[in-house]
Amino acid sequence: xxxxxxxxKKILSENDRLAAEIRDALQQRRIPALNLVSSPGSGKTSxxxxxxxxxxxxxxxxxxxxxxxxxxxxxxxRAAGGAQVQAIVTNGACxxxxxxxxxxxxxxxxxxxxxxVIENVGNLVCPSSYDLGEDMKIVLISATxxxxxxxxxxxxxxxxxxxxxxxxxxxGFSDFSLExxxxxxxxxNPDLQILSLSxxxxxxxDAWIAWLTDLILQARRPSAE
Length: 225
Ligand SMILES: Nc1nc2c(ncn2[C@@H]2O[C@H](COP(=O)(O)OP(=O)(O)O)[C@@H](O)[C@H]2O)c(=O)[nH]1
Ligand SMILES: [Mg+2]
What we know:
Blueprint: H1 2-28, E1 33-37, H2 44-55, E2 61-67, H3 72-80, E3 83-89, H4 98-106, E4 115-119, E5 136-142, H5 149-152, H6 154-159, E6 160-166, H7 178-188, E7 193-196, H8 205-220
Parallel strand pairs: 1-4, 1-5, 2-3, 2-4, 5-6, 6-7
Helix pairs in contact: 1-4, 2-3, 2-8
């Protein structure tokens, strides 16, 4: 047991070292980086599709789509158009790590990138422990998952800077309460920013796009250094 803990510690500290290198490289180029995490099916790829529709003409967006198996998400994002897209297939690993992200970034043009978004493997547990060099984690939860999930997976909600409640078009079809999920999440992380939206109907998407646009423009300002 102690041996296992020692090995895990070593893996995480090596990961942190690589993540710091990635963070430096991105910050030097003023590229804000987001790590999108959620359970499988909450709508990470859908959110990226609607994001590209709104922003790809104005900004150069880099996307890294991680999955245990298949490049389906990367293909969906390439089809949406207008972004540099790299796929990572983890072949069984339940999270991305900084080494995988570093390799994906080596195949991307950072000189022409205004924003990097990493879609992590769908899982609310393992991805919380791995820094990928991002500025912030954004956790998605959808209106079909149960409003108690922030309490059950506190590490993820504690480490996230923002929670996006997706599929608000389905509110009312289950006992999921927007107010309860917000209260549960804030009981874990009082500073959590919260947005709610529907990728299906587009309701609430404007606020997300405005927030992202602001993030990109702020990163470009000289005072951001
Ligand atoms: N009703 C509804 N379905 C959605 C919404 N967003 C995504 N979906 C559906 O949820 C499923 C999973 O979405 P996906 O983007 O693949 O989730 P991911 O696994 O987190 O990347 C797909 O069938 C989407 O069409 C939404 O806002 N409302
Ligand atoms: Mg996906």
